[in-house]
Amino acid sequence: MSDGQKQNANGVAYQLEPLRGLDGLSARVQPVPVPGPNQVLVRVRAASLNRRDIMLMEGTYPLPARPGVVPLVDGVGEVIAMGSDVTRTALGERVMSTYFVGWVDGPQTQALTGQQYGANHDGWLATYVLLEQESVVRVPAYLTDAEAAAITCAGLVAWAGLIKPVPVGPGDTVLTVGTGPVGLFAVQHAKMLGARVISITSSAEKGERLRKLGADEVVDRKVTPDWEHAVLELTGGLGVQRVIEGVGKLTLPKSLAATAYNGEVILIGAFPAGPGQQPADPLGGKYVSLRRVAVGSRADLELLTRTMTEHGARPVIDRVYPFERALEAYRYFSEGEPFGKVVITLS
Q: Which has the closest alpha carbon to 53: 117, 144, 148, 149?
């Protein structure tokens, strides 16, 4: 780091002690990190919450949180210093990071999956974040900081579920189950790809908002508990080509029942253990691919941001909290009913 890149103002970082709930999240002074030869120092502007952050706090995520880790994997900020071997970014550039520290492209491996920002590598809920240069991704200029801080996890996992192994497109019907951030991104992404979208929700108000996002048809599960039959009716009895399943065990049998021959159900993320047992044959005798996805690579994220830029797509933001109210943001995310991303901003 050159003399012109040196920073001398200590910041603040939140640290996580898992298995203690919100009591395990506390603020501490953060000395300014010094980047190594292949590292980038970023001044954080905004970060956002995902379900995995609550699971890390509760100890229900497959990868345990490192005690004292700085949480959150979604974020955006400005490059303020970088190591001598960094070539992928420049001072002053606005960037985000990948979810996995070292997954650039190609197949996912267990080793790559085991290194994550906000879990065992310090994440974005701090004044500064230190990134490996291979993790750095440029941010589309048209997005606000809050919007850019909403993409890395929920935005990318919805994208990966729709483009792999073969992208959906015109002539395909996508079913979204759940109105968490992943489900909302899935609606937007599927429409960018030219697909028809059917969404399952739990209220007329959410249904109207889903239609504004682009959903072609909405089924209210409280009005129509057997919503899989409604989906089959909407598809002429054939079912949908792709399901983005954001709820899990409780809705999986219905999602499978609504899937077309040779269709795919995409299980989103990790799910904590819940009550009840799966049916003995959850596939119901169908030839259906059940695929679980875990976010995506840097190449996937770069393709997503390019596609969003082409379409001018913007993430759905529910609420924005200032940095000093981070605990309140966590509480609202875990106990409220947000429709869209919950973002924390730094001045």
A: 117
Q: What predicted TM-score, i.e. pTM, was given to this entire model?
A: 0.90
Q: Which residues contact 206 (CB under 8 A, 6 or more apart)?
A: 179, 339
Secondary structure of residue 55 in the 3-state scheme: helix
Which residue's structure tokens are 């491996």? 109
* 301 touches 156 (CB < 8 A): yes
> Under 8 Å CB-to-CB from 114, ≥6 apart: which residues?
63, 120
**Fold category of 3-150+315-345 in CATH:** Quinone Oxidoreductase; Chain A, domain 1 (3.90.180)
**By C-alpha distance, which of 152, 143, 198 is closest to 304?**
152
User: pLDDT averaged over the chain?
Assistant: 92
User: Which letter does DSSP use for residue 73 in this model?
Assistant: S
- 10 Å Cβ neighbour count for 154? 30
Provide the residue ranges of all domains of the chain, joining segments of one domain with +: 3-150+315-345, 156-293
| Count of other CB atoms within 10 angstroms of residue 284 | 11
Could you tell me if 133 and 103 are in contact, meaning their C-beta atoms sit under 8 angstroms apart?
no
As given in the structure block, the two tokens for residue 245 are 């399943």
Angle between helices 326-335 and 51-58 (to 10 degrees): 100
pLDDT tens for each residue of 85-143: 999 999 999 999 999 999 999 988 889 999 999 999 999 999 999 999 999 999 999 99
Task: Tell me how far apart the alpha carbons of residues 136 and 89 are, in angstroms, rounded to a whole number.
Answer: 8
Q: How far apart, in whole angstroms, are the C-alpha atoms of residue 291 and residue 268?
A: 9
Topology adopted by domain 156-293:
Rossmann fold (3.40.50)
Closest residue by Cα to residue 2 from 115, 86, 112: 86
Sign of CA pseudo-dihedral 232, 235, 239, 241: negative
Helix (H, G, I), strand (E, B) or coil at 242: strand
